[in-house]
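## retry 2 of 3
previous attempt timed out at serialization; input unchanged, resubmitting
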Amino acid sequence: MNKKHVSFVSKKEHRKHSGFLIAFFTIAFLIALLIYIHYEGLQENIEELVELYGYPVVFILSFLVDVLEQPFGPEIPGSFAIALGLNAHLIFLIVVAGNLLGVTFSYFVGKWILAGKIQTLGKTEKYSRYWDQFLKYGKYGLLVATLSPVPFVFFCWLSGAFTMKMSDFYIYGFGPRIVRIGVILYFAHGIFT
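## retry succeeded, writing output
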């Protein structure tokens, strides 16, 4: 455990920061739950939006997917666009650009909104252990979240909150995400064309 993080935090301050974090993650969970419950309807809406507005909506949806925690990735709007006959190479670039903006935004949500709260809680002995564990293993957790169905946006928030280096964030979070997007869109292109 890193002793430099350990100091006294008043119960009032601890409750205040804990309450904020609980509220933040509860709201994020409820949004994800609503999206999951209405998943089929949302898929139809996404398909209609892509059909009506094309490339701009693919960019906007790719951004939003990596800002709001929910059960699907930016490949979904891109796949719909490819199925509708839009240029697959351009769709790949648009999805990657939207994804880059979205994950960067999520990182800074963690850094600007959550970091102070978590750092204050990190001054207690219990939270100091969590802090040390994230600093040691966080980039690997981010890599797993990038490539699997584990909540990716949550890890982007934590990466910012625990002040992961931007270079590590992009190497372990965004780089593999580009590969994942590319592979899925490649298969979508093969299936739909």
